[in-house]
């Protein structure tokens, strides 16, 4: 009998959820940033805080994002090509004004990939030596600007295109480069 009660106590302790793991600094960077900005836009635009309206607003916001934020939208099911749909795991808590960090913690439990997303480090175009960058990085700069380099075969072609477009997309960097 004593053995049975000890076993039931051990089983009960195993089933009791432990303290929820809070997000560490820098974890879920894309999730926290995107949802924080989204939540602020909801408050600024006086959107009604119900699940359906928030869901529509998320889908609308996700149509305009690129890069890691688009990947985040894909993971929560807010893009048209998404395989799963856990968008209600975002819209419902937001309708109750749950902090975005807590929402991201719950999303991490559902899909750990969400918290593995991190923003790419931004290059300082004023000081970076374009000749020392890889072609992949040069292509990424053009992609961020929404430009492409048709007919570019060599690294020098990409560098020429970037320096040509720099006054349009990064005027401060272009000005600093001419002063060097």
UniProtKB/TrEMBL annotation:
It is found in: Secreted. Keywords: Disulfide bond, Secreted, Signal. It comes from the Eukaryota. The keyword Cytoplasm does not apply. Residues 127-169 form the ARMET C-terminal domain. GO terms for cellular component: endoplasmic reticulum; extracellular space. Residues 1-22 form the signal peptide. Residues 27-123 form the ARMET N-terminal domain. GO terms for biological process: dopaminergic neuron differentiation; neuron projection development. Its main location: secreted. Belongs to the ARMET family. This is Mesencephalic astrocyte-derived neurotrophic factor.
